[in-house]
Amino acid sequence: MRVAIMGSGGDAPGMNPAIKRFVEAAFAFDMEPYFVFDGLEGLIDERISKASYEDVAGIIHRGGAIVGSSRSERWYEYKYRKKAYENLRKAEIEALVVMGGDGSFKAMKLFLEEFDFAVIGIPTTIDNDIFGTDISLGADTALNVIRDAIDKIRDTASTFSRAFVIETMGRECGYLAAVSAVTSGAEVCVIPEVSFDIESATKILKEEIKRGRRYILAVVAEGTGKTEEIVKWLKDDIGMETRLSVLGHIQRGGNPTVKDRLLGSGFALESIKALARGDRDRVVVYSDSRFSTLSFDSVLSQKYIIDEEILSMLNFSG
Ligand code: F6P
Q1: First to last CA, the chain
Q2: CATH domain 141-252 topology
Q3: Are 162 and 240 in contact (CB under 8 A)?
Q4: pTM, whole model, 2 decimals?
Q5: Arch. (CATH architecture) of 2-138+256-303
Q6: What is the pLDDT of residues 191-211, one digit of tens each?
Q7: pLDDT tens digits, residue range 55-112?
Q8: Which residues does a 6 A CB cutoff place in the pocket of ligand 1?
Q9: Of 61, 71, 150, 300, which residue is least crowded by CB atoms under 10 Å?
Q10: Helical H segments across 211-303, by residue range
Q11: How many angstroms is it from 3 CA to the middle of ligand 1?
């Protein structure tokens, strides 16, 4: 049986460890591993090739993905999805493992509805916004990149007695911001999931400044759209010199952490096991320290919710 792996949408650290294990596990299960390069765009344009052990040697520690990735607009036209299906048939590939987020899973669900094919999803996004899995591939490395950045920002903030607003990625989800605020001891955290009580935060911060607070760290999730507002508030109402640091795409890069290497390996192995069982429409999830699978439908029809325990650790929110 020929099986192919591909990335889709925003890349995330941990994809290379997953690709390596996919190839190794495929051989172990008597399957023939293939790569689809450059995501759905590459699938449409027939950028498909056979994978070997040599291809995946020395990649486990590297961020990004050796197979590339893309966001595809063409995919939403039927003729291109048909072309992708024909390309897979031509290469005699019977199953596809897709590392991607919600958008990519929606794209695959569409494909599954139209064509008789086996697709297994691996939740891959730094945003950690996928239902059914406690953690998605790449989120842990992104959290560590953010931790490193905030540690450095704290050095200058505390020396220079300034407030810093640090904007994190995550789309509509505040997971990266919430966990980063807790683990970096930020005074302020603004996320889409919780309404920010500006009055109470003003009162607390002003009181703390009176008692000697010299600097403030505020972590704001991009999905709130409130970054500039928080900068203005710290400057004008709290009265502290304020700087903004938008972390941007550095959050998507870097060597995968131990956790992301393990997760990548586990997700990939589970995807091969699912195919060996004959599964045709599943997403591998990691929940309560165990790998299992859910249908694309159930993952896509429900919303990821940040753990209450994490939210309860935030200082000013709610
Ligand atoms: O979904 C991953 C992500 O990095 C989001 O956190 C961010 O909003 C978006 O992708 C950025 O997309 P692009 O790389 O297309 O600018």
Answers
A1: 52
A2: Rossmann fold (3.40.50)
A3: yes
A4: 0.97
A5: 3-Layer(aba) Sandwich (3.40)
A6: 999 999 999 999 999 999 999
A7: 999 999 999 999 999 999 999 999 999 999 999 999 999 999 999 999 999 999 999 9
A8: 10, 101, 125-127, 169-171, 222, 252
A9: 61
A10: 227-232, 258-277, 296-300
A11: 28
